Amino acid sequence: MPFINVQFADPDGAPRRDMLRDFGFDETFLKDYLEIQLPGDLPARVVEVQRGRYGLVVRGRDGMVQEAEGTLSGRLLHEAEGGYPLPSVGDWVALKMEDRAEGSARPEGSIRAVLPRRSAFMRRAPGDRPGQLPTQVLAANVDTAFIVAAADARWSPRRIERYLTLAYEAGVEPVVVITKADLAQELTGRTGAELLEEAEGLSPGLQAVLVCAPEAQGLESLSPWLKIGKTVVLLGSSGAGKSTLLNALAGHQLAATQEVRSDDSRGRHTTTHRELFRLPSGALVIDSPGLREVQVLAGEDALAETFGDIEALAASCRFRDCAHGLEPGCAVRAALESGELDRGRYEGWRKIGREVAYLAAKEDPRLAAAQADRWRQINKSMRGYTKERRSIQGKAR
After folding, report:
1. How far apart, in whole angstroms, are the C-alpha atoms of residue 222 and residue 208?
2. Which fold does the domain 19-116 belong to in CATH?
3. Architecture of the 121-287 domain
4. What's the pTM value of the predicted model, to 2 decimals?
């Protein structure tokens, strides 16, 4: 498990002491660590997970940061069966160091506990089981999520909305990074500026940037989020350009890249597992495999933050329980008819809303009936509205 990605020196090459702070270990994490610390423990951050073994950065007894490998303690494995979180990339853990075996390249230890997460970027794991809600932690203790979307044939505001909902649920600031900006006109028939405007319009206050990573164009616009000790996660589908972006930010090859297919702009997974890298700027970046299926794991608040414009319209409806169909005084339907509200965005809201309702029912069966009924009424009303609209259009012909 070679962690050649980790740089343990300032950009000028000068070694530093107590560098664990530069990996995000601040006073809050220190306080949490001291509350669970046992003799022989050291604080460590997970930088890689592969087949049950964990790559870590740990402060040595001399104050210097070094690489280490870890496995889960038997007690932690047992507690995990009862719902205790297993470590994910970005987590801080208490590591009980072991005597280094002769010839061992790096220290090893046993992960005894996971510190409370400041944020957890999660999604529903593919598949489902009756009475269970499988989840998957994509990254922990993240400050910013770069939602990487390519300006090509797969450009999809609906997919971006799903990532935004995940980010808002995690309490993580999202930034849309539009890659392949130089090819936007050729591949989408729209300029990069038009895609930028569309992306920023997906959520109030959302920031988006245009980059051409191979040419290092636009990378300076990402600097506000790439600060020492701050953690960014790269999210996006395969072929969006996450690995190319990471390499451009690092200034050298950190992750393998592959060409996407020219016929449909689809790419293969070049990143096979999540891994944390430290950039020359001191920022920390978690690269992750492309997600073919973005299963939303979020609540009503995250939904409202992603679709604030629709929620504001719904609040203006004449009736509080408006299902946005044939009811009089429906502000949502009026916005659809006038073109103020994009129908694709509305359909995205409905789809994610149904998933949020499903999650609420899973977590609390008492909410199941109310949530299911709400979205059943919305879907039923919209079917009636669509049928009536088609009838009117037919008569007009």
Report:
1. 10
2. OB fold (Dihydrolipoamide Acetyltransferase, E2P) (2.40.50)
3. 3-Layer(aba) Sandwich (3.40)
4. 0.81
